[in-house]
Amino acid sequence: MLLPMLGVLLLVSLATAAAGIVTAVLMLNTSPLALPRLCAVLVLVLGSSAAAVYCYGWFSVTLGGPFPALCEDRNASGAELASIVQERWPLRSACVYSDGATVEHISMSITMLVCLLAGLAIVLAGAGAVLHRRVPSSSEGSLGTP
Fold this sequence. Notes:
Elements: H1 2-28, H2 35-62, E1 81-87, E2 92-97, E3 102-106, H3 108-134, H4 138-143
Antiparallel strand pairs: 1-2, 2-3
C-alpha cells in the first residue's frame, strides 16, 4: 500500500517542481518583480524537490538499491549473512551476520540533499514572510491608504 502512494508522491513532486521552475522563470521575465511571491514559488520548488529526492531514496532502499550489493555473503570472521535490515529515515541499511556482527551503510548523499533542499525551503519561507511584511501590496496603494 505504501509503495503506490510513494510512487504517486514522487510523480506529483516532480510535476510540482517542474511547474514551479517554469513559474519562477516566467516571474523573472515580468516587471515589477514581486520578491515575496518569487520566494513562495521557490519554497514550493525546493520543498517538492526534497520530497522527490526522498521518494527516490526510499525506492532505492526498498527495491534493493545500492545497499544489498554492499553486503558480503560472509564477513571477515566467516559468519554468513543472516539478514538485511533497512530503515526509511535516515535511509540506511544494515547487514546482520549470523555471529551478531552488524555493518551499517547510510546513504549520506540522499540524506544530505533532502536536508539541504528542505532547509533552503524553510529559509526562503522565512525570507518571503519578512519581505511580505515590508513590501506594500499594490491594492493598498490604489485605495489611498498607507
